[in-house]
Amino acid sequence: MRASLLASAALLAVCGAGQAAVAADAPRFFVRVATVPVFETLPAGLDPAQKTAAEILAATADGLTAVFTDSPGTSLGVIDLTDPAQPGSRGRVALGGEPTSVSVVGGYALVGVNTSESYTHPSGHIAVVSLKDLAIQARCDVGGQPDSLAVDPKNRFLAVAVENERDEETNNGALPQLPPGHLALFDLGPDGTPTNCQAMRKVDVTGLATIAPEDPEPEFVDLNAEGRVILSLQENNHLVIVDAATGKIVNHFSAGTVSLDTIDTRKDGIIQGTGSLKDIAREPDAVAWLDAHRFVSANEGDYKGGSRGFTVWTDDGTVAYDSGPLMEHLAMRIGHFPEKRAGKKGSEPEGAEMGVFDGERLFFINAERANMVAVFRDMGPGQAPAFVQVLPTGVGPEGVLALPERGLLLVAAEEDSAKDNVRASVSVYARTATRPAYPTLESADDPKTGAPIGWGALSGLAADPKDPARLYTLSDSAYASARIYTLDASQTPARLSGFVEVTGAPQEKLDLEGIATRPNGGFWVVSEGNPDKGLANLLLAVGADGTVERTVTLPDEVARQAGRFGFEGVAVYGDKDHEKVAVAFQRPWQDDPKDQARIGLFDPQADTWTWVRYPLSAPTSPAGGWVGLSEIVSLGDQRFAVIERDNQPGPAAALKQIAVFDLAGVTPAATGADIPVVGKTVVKDLLPVLKATNGWTLDKVEGLCVAANGGVYMLTDNDGVDDATGETLFARLGSRDELFK
């Protein structure tokens, strides 16, 4: 990972120094080796479409068994990690309430369970679960609604943040809302179970914070080897340090404020670092000790703040380091920035974890809305941390767990909607790589803002006819601004080095889905229409500066047959003296057979359209869905390659392929005449490429091109991090001669 991913000069310098201390060929990077969809851990007979979640993680000391909390399922899931690349379910434990957090000591899982009847009458307990027989052995009352819990490294104490959370519907969520929260402390016996199960030590934390001191709302807790508890009061923007043995408050201090520049603060459909925030409260969520005197906080925000980053603290309340806009810039650079959250709390760093791997102290920060976890190397007191890498996650990463003894990292993603093809999951990463596998595509800095070029939802790919390293791609209607990006394929990861705005189109809203370079310069691009929104399918000739030079529409009798899925890819064929354009329609229109998609052939000189149809494969996914085209590329001599795919992601993905058809011997039909059907030959199954990431299988393969040197590249559309993981896969598939013989 190049240092360009860093947001500050200080981190740049330290990152280089930190990495130089490790052998160049040492396996010091994490790579995802497995993803466990939570619905696949449900008992037989339950509806796999029911809502599930994976929120907080814990594991046995040997790292062979992991557990996760499933709040909607009111249960604890158990995962066998004997083979990290092939994790399996060991079953579930019904808890009789909402699990909020979990730790494992010895052979027992200690689970926080919320049984509150209302916000004003909170209740809950610690369920002591035997991992041998998956049965509850005891319940220890915590005097309210538990949130986070943690055990110290020596297995002496269990600390529970009892939040007694506010009702956000009451008085617009304003504090105070009694009863107040507190800290509950338990002593653990040799077997890991609480010895004071019915007599926990209650630590009163009222009267400490400046914000609503009478109503503290404990959010997250961690313990160090010295038995010191760090407790975040998120809504109160306060941090408290407690001695677990005595329950005495050792120190407490405000989490303070941060001012940020070069970030996106407007929900306007454009990702750009032109905004600022002044004196925004950190409002930390997760906290994790780094050593005896330092800890890190993930400053998600919940009430009135959220500083979009993380902070390293010393236990006297000193800010040793603050990340500023780094997390926002990182999300922007790798295409994970959640534009719809720009006006709220941005990427929302929420989770924090520390682990010592092969002598290196690493910490991990989850960004809940950006679906990523950033990895940093702690360089020690008085030094800024060094950025190591960023990892893609499922949707809504909540819990993060380091297992240094096994060289593993686990991340729980909680968002789940079978209807939207978004499922909760647990991702497993192993520290076995000598270079980061992700991202495969990143952006350079925008000289106008000083922040990374914002991007996402890339749809379509084209090659420069002369420069083998230069490709072009574009963004679809996920964003308000239609852009054509220049992509440098010579770097690893590949880089979006610049962009132009498409201007002068006949309609304000464009949904750019395909791009091809013209032999005399400029581009042909297609914008997909939507009859329900009054948007036409458009073929646009665009200059190198983004100006629309010509608009081509469909014949009226064809346009009247439009369906929801229209123009999806474009290719240029012929030569510079007589270029022609082929346009792929994604799915059949009203007058097409149900298993055939139309290919439109436009002659710019004659200003005429002719037609052929492409035979679509039948859907093979157990989830059903449809199959359509998402790209077309000219191979010369009237041969074309297309991407044919289903619309299913994750385990349901079944058909993603490249096929070739030839117009030789085929006479395209004029408008209104009988349309011939071309033959096709499948040349590449893309599912192995997509599944090789060991994540949630991406469904939208939308870009394909042949570079000037014959290299063949593919690109996926990340849907703008909207009900999607946000991952983008840019990959070289081989050479033209290998794929298209």
Could you characterize the architecture of this molecule?
- The two termini are about 35 Å apart.
- The chain contains five helices and 51 strands.
- It has about 750 residues and is mainly beta.
- The chain has a domain at about 455-740: Neuraminidase, CATH 2.120.10.30.
- Strand 36 and strand 37 (about 525) form a beta hairpin.
- The strands form 13 sheets. The protein has a five-stranded mixed β-sheet, with no helix packed on it. A five-stranded antiparallel β-sheet has the order 40-41-42-43-47, with no helix packed on it. A four-stranded antiparallel β-sheet has the order 1-30-29-28, with no helix packed on it.
Computed Rg = 28 Å
Main CATH class of the domain at 455-739: Mainly Beta
**Apparent shape:** elongated
Strand content: 35-45%
Strand arrangement within the widest β-sheet reads: 31-35-34-33-32
Query: What is the fold-level CATH name, i.e. the topology of the domain at 455-739?
Result: Neuraminidase
Low-confidence stretches: 1-22
> Number of helical runs?
5
- Fourth-level CATH superfamily of the domain at 455-739: TolB, C-terminal domain
Q: From the helix content, strand content and strand pairing, which structural class follows?
A: mainly beta
Estimate the mean pLDDT confidence. Answer: 95
Most strands sheet: 5 strands, mixed
- Number of strand segments: 51
Helix proportion range: under 10%
